[in-house]
């Protein structure tokens, strides 16, 4: 069964508040994580499986030298979230990271990514379009959550 990928646009303030609470009560952190996920604006993901987005992230890391796993100040939050909610993958893309990724994706070749990462070219093209669309919606007050269950 393919893993389900979800993109959510979330207020940066909510993520920062969560990061500050990490040393606090795990139950409170879990409740707030759920609130952030439920309140976030769900963005279209083109119906692609998580494997497609993993291939795109791997491409960005291998070919464009962009660390899609570097959450900066939010690494502890990512670790806590994954302990509590246990998705296979969680990534938090800030506005700055989104700009960097968009620049790198501007010349991405779906055929190359599909061949190198053994994925369907049409699915990769759809994933690229969806990811670019999600990244373009961000402003400095929001971040993009990528959840893979």
How do you describe this structure in short?
The chain is an alpha+beta fold and 149 residues long. Helix content is 55%, strand content 15%. The protein has one domain: Hypothetical protein yfbM fold.
Descriptive keywords:
four-stranded antiparallel sheet; alpha+beta; Hypothetical protein yfbM fold; 149 residues; 4 strands
Secondary-structure map:
Blueprint: E1 5-11, H1 12-20, H2 26-39, E2 41-43, H3 50-63, H4 75-85, E3 89-93, H5 95-105, H6 110-116, H7 121-136, E4 142-148
Antiparallel strand pairs: 1-2, 1-4, 3-4
Helix pairs in contact: 2-4, 3-7, 5-7, 6-7
Overview of this structure, please?
The protein is an alpha+beta fold and 149 residues long. The radius of gyration is 15 Å and the shape is globular. The protein has a single domain (5-148), classed as Hypothetical protein yfbM fold, CATH 3.40.1760. The longest helix has 16 residues, at 121-136. A four-stranded antiparallel beta sheet has the order 2-1-4-3. Helix content is 55%, strand content 15%. The model has no long low-confidence stretch (mean pLDDT 80).
């Amino acid at each position: 069964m393919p893993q389900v990928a979800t993109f959510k646009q979330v207020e940066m303030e909510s993520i920062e508040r969560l990061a500050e609470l990490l040393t606090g009560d795990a139950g409170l952190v879990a409740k707030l994580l759920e609130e952030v996920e439920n309140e976030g604006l769900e963005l279209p993901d083109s119906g692609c499986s998580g494997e497609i987005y993993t291939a795109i992230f791997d491409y960005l890391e291998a070919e464009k030298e962009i660390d899609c796993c570097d959450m900066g100040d939010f690494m502890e939050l990512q670790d806590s979230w994954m302990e509590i909610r246990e998705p296979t993958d969680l990534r938090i893309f800030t506005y700055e990271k989104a700009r960097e990724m968009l620049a790198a994706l501007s010349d991405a070749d779906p055929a190359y990514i599909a061949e190198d990462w053994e994925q369907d070219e049409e699915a990769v093209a759809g994933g690229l379009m969806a990811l670019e669309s999600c990244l373009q919606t961000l402003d400095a007050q929001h971040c993009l959550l990528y959840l893979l269950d």
